[in-house]
Amino acid sequence: MITLNQIKKNPQIKEFIKQSAKSLTFEGYTDHGLSHLDLVADRARNIAREVGLSAREQELSAIAAFCHDMGNFLSRTNHHYFGALLFNQVFGKEFEAGDISLVMQAISNHDKKEMKFANPISAVLVLADKSDVRRSRVVEKKIDNIKLDIHDRVNYATTMSKLGINRQKKVISLVLKIDTGFVPVIEYFEIFTERMVYCREAAQSLGYKFGLVINNFKLL
Fold this sequence. Notes:
- By secondary structure, the protein is an alpha+beta fold.
- It has one domain (4-218): Hypothetical protein af1432 (Orthogonal Bundle).
- 55% of the residues lie in helices and 11% in strands.
- The protein has 10 helices and 4 strands, in the order H-H-H-H-H-H-H-H-H-E-E-H-E-E.
- It has helices at residues 4-9, 11-26, 34-50, 55-67, 79-91, 97-109, 120-130, 143-146, 150-157, 186-205, and strands at 158-166, 171-178, 209-214, 217-218.
- The protein starts with a helix and ends with a strand.
């Protein structure tokens, strides 16, 4: 069975990710390259393990997480669909049909309005991806330019970001520290409310509640 380490070494996957990161940086987005993908893959594996998924489901969660943004060099709007198709193009003959279907479904599901969680891997990926807000995601280096873009401002102001899982209370919590001297907390909700709704729905599909804590205040 193919592992995440083998996926990371594949030359086509590496190039898709490289070109996607390059395209999004050119368009002014926050980091969607290896830093983001490694973090999301690690977070997905941890979530899958903590909520009790099998060892193979944990591996598939990490694989889907690492590959979820690689379709961006073809289209930002439809990158989730292109990413799933690219994954099948590269690995279609190397995965069992059931496994590759789960990975494709998770990739294609992670960024669309009609998001549904027909399998737990899709839910794990959404939680891992949508919770990645942090200062180091900001590609722009000039503070004056960072202040011009709300996504850059909010990410730059986030000095701590941690996703915690309480198996006894069945709660998945995103804990953030935001520098309110740089942005008011309301700006977080201006751009990330939809993401938090997705996280809540994903957690619920796994049998958990979703919580959001900002600067020691529980908001969800």
